[in-house]
Every structure is written in structure tokens, then in C-alpha cells.
Specification:
This protein is mainly beta. The protein contains one helix and 20 strands. Strand 18 and strand 19 form a beta hairpin.
């Protein structure tokens, strides 16, 4: 009996060791990891997306576990939920099933050259094998093979934001953005609060950018009161996007036609390598008279 247990233990040891070693072979049938960032040459203030991508010749991926996380020495990194959906692709004349198994955003606040050291991940692949049961006869069974895979290192170079051509109202944002303003209220009445919405959106991070000086766009007869801003981030086509909405409360002293002057937003376009200023068109507002509520005189009754 002891000899039987010994044989089983030896078999399991060889079995597991073979799977670990197979995961490191450069075999097209074995899964492998690749890493990428959406921009390898970036500038200060831009956030890039770092992804760890699994490539498998088989669609039967059973799961992914993190063995060791990537190392972002000198860079500000934050974890983002990956999209683990398998996608069938063709590469190098072969068919692969690909999925993003880990994702981070990297803040590049200081110029320099950086190396992101890839982490290690344990990948499970379900595979079928033939068995010949003494009672049931030949059949197929499934077992999960485990592979420990290393993600390749990535090099990132961060250049300083150029001083030449920097506009006086530079927001500090890096990417590519648009701006628009709309009136939230269906109608504006004299003496009542109204709301103006200014939306800045596009590729890049707006969390540290300066807000436009919207109050300067309200001319005579319009009273700027306050503004609040909200922010949303999203991932689109492997890049970080963001949208900032600024809601401004204002009022008009009396009825008439008013104009809210154009609002500017300046950013640095890292792909084009230049500063860009986007501007809204002026917004014409028709302010109508306030609603007058007529009150009937009180009725006095003799008792």
C-alpha cells in the first residue's frame, strides 16, 4: 500500500512540473503573455494605459491568477478592471484567442526613461484527454492544465511639455478634447436662476486640468452665481478618456436678449506635438418676463 501511494506522489510531482515547464516553452500551442501601452513616447501630465494580454491557441481558458504584480518604479500607477472577454484574432498566420487579463493607468508626471517590469500570472487551460474506464469503456475527460507565464518588460519615455507656444490660459491637460456649452433650462425668466452646462470631453485625463474662466463670459445684465463640476473616466480602444461637466448658475436682471461669450479651453496635443485651443460659439439667450401671480383680495364675511 505504501509503495502505491509513493508511485502516485511521484506521478503528481512529474505531472505538475511538466505543466509549469510547458508554460515557459516558445511553442505556438502554449499560451503566452504580451504587454503594451497605448503610448510608449509620452509627455509630462499624460496618462497612458498599460495592459497585460493573454494569447491562447485554445478558447477553453479556465481562469487567471496574479502571481506577482508589475513594478512601476518611479511612475504613479493605478489598477483598472480589465476586459477579460476572449476575442478571436489572426496573428502571424495563426489563430489566437486574446483577452486583457490585467490593466493599469500610468501617470507620467516627471520626464525621464522608465521600465515597467512585467509581473507573473498563472493561467488555467481546460483540455480533454482520452480515458479507458474498465466499466464505462473509452471516453473523454477534462483536466485543467496550469501555466505560470511572465509578462514582458515595457519601456516608456516621458518628455517635458514644451514651453514654446504654450498659451497663457493653458489648462495643463494633455490629449485631444472638445468643448461645448448648452442651456439646461427650456426658458430663462428675469430674476430667476438658470443653468448653463459646459462639457469638456475627449482622449486624455482632465482630473488635474484647470477649469476655464467661465464667469468672464457673462456680460452686462447677467449675474454669475456659482458653478460645480463632475468628472467621468472611461476606456475606449485601449486609451483613457474623460469627460468633465461644469454647471453654472446665473440669472438675468430683466427680460431681453443676452449673449454668453465664447469659452476657451487650451490643451497640449501629444500626438500632433502642439498646443490647441478649442472654443465654443457664443450662446444667444432670450430672457422673458418673470411670471406674475395675481392675488384676489380676501373675502370678508360677516358672522
Amino acid at each position: 500500500m505504501k509503495r502505491g501511494f509513493l508511485h502516485i506522489a511521484i506521478f503528481l510531482s512529474v505531472f505538475l512540473l511538466s505543466f509549469h515547464c510547458e508554460g515557459k516553452k516558445k511553442d505556438a500551442a502554449m499560451p503566452f503573455l504580451e504587454t503594451k501601452v497605448n503610448r510608449y513616447n509620452t509627455v509630462e501630465g499624460e496618462k497612458v494605459i498599460y495592459e497585460v494580454i493573454l494569447n491562447s491557441a485554445e478558447a477553453s481558458v479556465a481562469g487567471v491568477d496574479v502571481v506577482s504584480l508589475p513594478e512601476f518604479s518611479g511612475l504613479d500607477a493605478g489598477h483598472i478592471a480589465p476586459d477579460s472577454r476572449l476575442e478571436e484574432v489572426e496573428a502571424d498566420g495563426r489563430r489566437y484567442y486574446r483577452a486583457v487579463v490585467d490593466r493599469f493607468f500610468i501617470g507620467t508626471d516627471t520626464k525621464g526613461k522608465y521600465i515597467v517590469k512585467g509581473g507573473a500570472y498563472r493561467i488555467g487551460i481546460n483540455r480533454q484527454f482520452a480515458v479507458n474506464d474498465p466499466f464505462w469503456g473509452p471516453s473523454l475527460a477534462t483536466r485543467t492544465e496550469m501555466f505560470v507565464l511572465d509578462a514582458p518588460d515595457v519601456r516608456i519615455q516621458v518628455a517635458p511639455v514644451p514651453l514654446k507656444g504654450m498659451p497663457a490660459g493653458f489648462s495643463g491637460a494633455v490629449g485631444r478634447f472638445d468643448i461645448e456649452m448648452t442651456l439646461v433650462n427650456n426658458e430663462v425668466r428675469a430674476g430667476e436662476d438658470a443653468c448653463l452646462s459646459v462639457v469638456i470631453s475627449g482622449n486624455g485625463d482632465l482630473s488635474k486640468s484647470k477649469l476655464p474662466e467661465i464667469h468672464k463670459s457673462f456680460g452686462n445684465g447677467l449675474h454669475f452665481k456659482s458653478m460645480t463640476d463632475s468628472m467621468e473616466h472611461y476606456i475606449k480602444n485601449g486609451s483613457l478618456g474623460s469627460e468633465m461637466e461644469i454647471e453654472c448658475l446665473f440669472s438675468a436682471e430683466k427680460s431681453g436678449k443676452y449673449t454668453i461669450a465664447p469659452i476657451d479651453f487650451s490643451y497640449f496635443d501629444s500626438e500632433a506635438g502642439k498646443y490647441v485651443t478649442v472654443t465654443t460659439p457664443p450662446l444667444e439667450i432670450d430672457v422673458i418676463d418673470a411670471v406674475r401671480v395675481s392675488e384676489d383680495p380676501p373675502v370678508i364675511m360677516d358672522v
